[in-house]
Amino acid sequence: MDKINNFAKNLVEERRARNISQRKLAEYLNVDASLVYQWEHEKCEPGLDTLCKISAYFDIPIDELLGAKYPTALLNEQERKIAQN
């Protein structure tokens, strides 16, 4: 359930930071605006294809949109450099 909570919170933050309405995002994604509302209120979550489109729309990585955190201590040097960028 945390994944949904993080996604919902991050979706709202990204959308509001860019002053984008639920309707405008829904139009871009070719879904009903009520579905965006449901995502933001933790009723359901988008499929992988839609998640990729949302990520592209906001120009942020999917893992950031989902709120995933990776402990850098577990990464090798090359992965650490990538994670920092």
How would you sum up this structure, described in words?
The protein is mainly α and 85 residues long. It has a single domain (2-84), classed as 434 Repressor (Amino-terminal Domain), CATH 1.10.260.40. The protein is built from six helices and no strands. The radius of gyration is 14 Å and the shape is elongated. The two termini are 28 Å apart. The mean pLDDT is 85.
Kindly summarize this structure in a few lines.
This protein has six helices and no strands.
Label this structure with key terms.
elongated; mainly alpha; 6 helices
Stated plainly, the CATH topology is called 434 Repressor (Amino-terminal Domain)
Gyration radius (Cα, Å) is 14 Å
Number of strands: 0
The CATH architecture designation is Orthogonal Bundle
CATH superfamily: lambda repressor-like DNA-binding domains
Order of helices and strands: HHHHHH
State the secondary-structure class.
mainly alpha
Summarize the topology.
Elements: H1 2-17, H2 22-29, H3 33-40, H4 48-58, H5 62-66, H6 77-84
Helix pairs in contact: 2-3
